[in-house]
Design brief:
Length: 113
C-alpha cells in the first residue's frame, strides 16, 4: 500500500521542523529535497526532521536526509532527526549515519535539545 508523502514545516525559536510522513522513496524524495532547499537557516540554528509518520524510506529517501544535513551545514546550522522508525534506525546505524545525525526520541526533545 502506497502512502503519499506529506511534508509540513513550522518555525521554532531556533530553526525549523520538517515533519515527514508517508513514503519517502525514489518517486517522492525530490519533493523533500526541493522543500529543504527553500528553508533559510543561519549559523547555530537547528533543522529538525520529524519522521514519526514515515512508512517507508529507501536509499533515495536516505539521500534526501543527507541533503538536509548538507543544506544545514552550509549555513553553519545542524540537522537532527526525531522519532526515527525502528527499521530506518537500524539502517542508519548499519551505514554509520547515526554518527552524522543526532537522534532524538521526539520533536519536543529535538527542538529543546
Amino acid at each position: 500500500m502506497m502512502h503519499q508523502l506529506k511534508i509540513t514545516t513550522h518555525d521554532t525559536a531556533n530553526g525549523h521542523v520538517l515533519a515527514v510522513s508517508g513514503d519517502l522513496d525514489y518517486a517522492s524524495a525530490p519533493e523533500l529535497r526541493a522543500r529543504i532547499g527553500t528553508l533559510r537557516l543561519t549559523a547555530g540554528q537547528r533543522l529538525v526532521v520529524d519522521l514519526a509518520g514515515l512508512h517507508i524510506c529507501d536509499s533515495s529517501g536516505i539521500t534526501a536526509l543527507i541533503v538536509a544535513y548538507q543544506h544545514a551545514r552550509a549555513a553553519q546550522a545542524e540537522t537532527v532527526l526525531a522519532s526515527v522508525p525502528g527499521s530506518l534506525l537500524r539502517t542508519l546505524r548499519i551505514v554509520g549515519l547515526d554518527q552524522l545525525f543526532a537522534l532524538y526520541p521526539d520533536t519536543n526533545a529535538a527542538v529543546g535539545g
